[in-house]
Amino acid sequence: MSPDVLLPTAPIVRPDKDRFLNEENPFEAMMSRFDQAADLLDLEPGIYKVLRHPEKQIITSIPVMLDNGDVEVFKGIRVLYNTSRGPAKGGIRFDMNVTLDEVTALAAWMTWKCAVVNIPFGGAKGGVVCDPLKMSVGELERLTRRYTASIIQTLGPDSDVPAPDVNTNERVMAWIMDTYSMHMRHTVTAVVTGKPIEMGGSQGRREATGRGCMIVTKQALAHLGMPVKGTTVAVQGFGNVGSVAAQLLAREGCKIVAISDRTGGVYNAKGIDVDAAIAHVAKHRTLEGFKAGDAITNEQLLVQEVDVLLPGALENVITTKNAAQIRAKVICEGANGPTTAAADSILDDKGIFVIPDILANAGGVTVSYFEWVQDRGGYFWTEKRVNESLTEIMEQSFDAVLSLAKQHKVNMRTAAYMLSISRVATVHRLRGIYA
Length: 435
Ligand code: GLU
Known about the structure:
Blueprint: H1 26-41, H2 45-51, E1 56-65, E2 71-82, E3 88-94, H3 100-116, E4 122-129, H4 137-150, E5 160-164, H5 170-184, H6 208-224, E6 232-236, H7 242-251, E7 255-261, E8 264-267, H8 274-284, E9 294-296, H9 298-302, E10 308-311, E11 330-332, H10 341-349, E12 353-355, H11 357-360, H12 363-377, H13 383-408, H14 412-431
Parallel strand pairs: 3-4, 3-5, 6-7, 6-10, 10-11, 11-12
Antiparallel strand pairs: 1-2, 2-4, 7-8, 8-9
Bound molecules: glutamic acid.
């Protein structure tokens, strides 16, 4: 019997198809793109229903002893969206704005992202509602370890593998790995990726998301017949994604004319010395006080006259309020969900070529996959091998999405969703429904 016979054929019920309650709700943004691709794929009702729902959502209260002796209780979340293609994979963020809807959307995006680049993972995401900038290192360590202990039932190299995300880094991953290993009574390096290289991390992992952005931006420029040399670029967000993307694009010959972080930004038509900006942030933590041109706001950065705009920070920065003013020819979405679904058609009408987040920023999870492979094999690759393998996967994925976009006459985002949803759906058809 063909596996699809096993799936029910009730009519599709789409609860929020004709409703757009909140432009800035990331789950709705994700779902409206999902619906569009599902329609074009003519996805059968059973699989459609399965893929609309997260597999598992954990909400936990995390008591932490603060340095002053008080006890504070933080909210922690871990969502496993879909694990049909392999272990759940996705970062953990520490941020005051973390919500269950946001983490669920981010976990779904991880599912589609891993499928776009065809690595054998499902999608997950985690978050803790906290302000890490106001916490000491000791408080952050206690928070991380207690959060890890409270979601330990899902974690494991074969089941759920976290990584860094907004406001988490190698050090946080080292604490998670150690806590998990203490519970297991042996060292388990493959339970997290994005670890320090000394304890099982991969060469090239820290730069991987920014490097992936650079690779696909170059492909987009080639596709549009634009030269790389002299291409002007504005980068929003100067963390792990934005700063590395800016640095690598500058090395390729692009001119980085605007950069910003949460403290504001700077514009210089002659180009900004990205290495000097990175050195400033290493010393002062933010770009504040980096005088390399005219001071601009984050909102102004987005509407500068540039060839490439790279939003590399948070969700919902390109909305119906500013999309019409955007003057870039290419948008490379380094962040997850920087464009709201309602803004997509405005960008399309303006002829802007958008490299969607689930493709543009997939370099990070791709090298996470290499790290997990290296940990499990106990054999470590050179940086050259990591970067070459990353380049191969990013280029192949870009080409696959572009050819699907041409074939169906849709934009790159819809094509990326179609490619990834069809890959996940195929596995569901083959596996069937366990009863
Ligand atoms: N947090 C990154 C992302 O959003 C990396 C996830 C991972 O490597 O698991 O893609």
